[in-house]
Amino acid sequence: MRNHLILLLLTLMLPTLVPAQKKKFVLPPDFVEVSGLYITAPDSIWWHNDSGDRPRLLLTDGRGRVRQRVAIPGIQNRDWEDITADSQGFLYLGDFGNNLNRREDLRIYRYHPRTRQLDSILFSYPDQVSFPPPLPQWNFDAEGFLWFRDSLHVFSKNRMGAGNYYTKHYVLPTQPGKYTAILRDSLLLPKRVVTGAAVSPDGRQIALLSYFYRMTFLGLLPKTRTTVWTLSDFPGSQFFKGTLSKTRVKKPPLVPTQYESIGYVSEKRVLIASERTIMFKPRAKQVKLKRRVEKVEGG
I want to staple 133 with a disulfide (CB 3.0 to 4.6 A). Which of 19, 137, 242, 291 is the partner? Predict the structure, then answer.
């Protein structure tokens, strides 16, 4: 009788013992080139692909299993690069990928999954006067942004190799309309370009996902390195005035991986996801953030 009671108690406890979110998982076939994720709850994650996919959102549980495929009619996925959300339930889709630095139709879609309300925020950069500018000035691409308090914050992706590795911080309002972004600051991340951004659940820290890529072994084998930079103790929304810490992301040796999306699981952990390659399926994994203070140069 006693054994039966123990077995019954274990059975009742089992759902609470199984975590809603796995620390590592392979993404399903829907994810061809995942470039944005946003965690609304431990068992609810919004995702989107890059320009290779139609305009849609994917909602999964915390283990990467697709729950919903949400088509958004009437818009384009020209180059979606990141997703964030505000406190009112609006999702923001950053259609601002600009690899050739010549786009004049940069846009952020504001979409509410429940009401299906859809708006657009059109914008330009205040410091871009030619499309494209001279090659050394190619720093008008962006792959990461976040919502913080009452504004959107966009972080530029510098040009690998040819650039100076500064990322610029731009600010935009959340209301539909056409705007010139405000250039607030810039930050040097040595040999790294920014591919994603996120804000912690308590709003006291932001994370910038970055990577470095080069060819090794006589130019035959690609090598990548991924780093998560966190900024905390910043005044207001002047993120680059805060304390910068660095977390290197471990991966198998000689396996080229490009991580392009990031979201906070908790104040001490983030979830990052990689793109599909010829040999490897897209994957997501949690990374524990470290408190290693870095000295870097601001702009």
Answer: 137
The confidence band for 299, taking pLDDT boundaries of 50, 70 and 90, is: low
- For residue 132, is the peptide bond before it cis, meaning its omega torsion is within 30 degrees of 0? yes
CATH number where 220 lies: 2.115.10
Question: Is residue 12 in some structural domain?
Answer: no
Per-residue pLDDT reduced to its tens digit, 77-119? 999 999 999 999 999 999 999 999 999 999 999 999 999 999 9
Order the strands of the 283-288 sheet from edge to edge.
Answer: 24-26, 283-288, 269-274, 259-266
Which pTM was predicted? 0.90
Are 31 and 276 spatial neighbours (Cβ–Cβ below 8 Å)?
yes
pLDDT tens profile 12-29: 444 444 456 789 999 999
Q: Distances from the Cα of 218 to the Cαs of 41, 161, 215, 254, in angstroms?
A: 46, 17, 8, 14
Instruction: Write out the residue range of the structural domain in which residue 99 sits.
Output: 32-288
How many Cβ atoms from other residues are within 10 Å of residue 100's Cβ?
Answer: 11
Pairwise CA distance, residues 98 & 57, whole Å? 21
Burial 3-24 (b: 16+ CB within 10 A, else e): eeeeeeeeeeeeeeeeeebbee
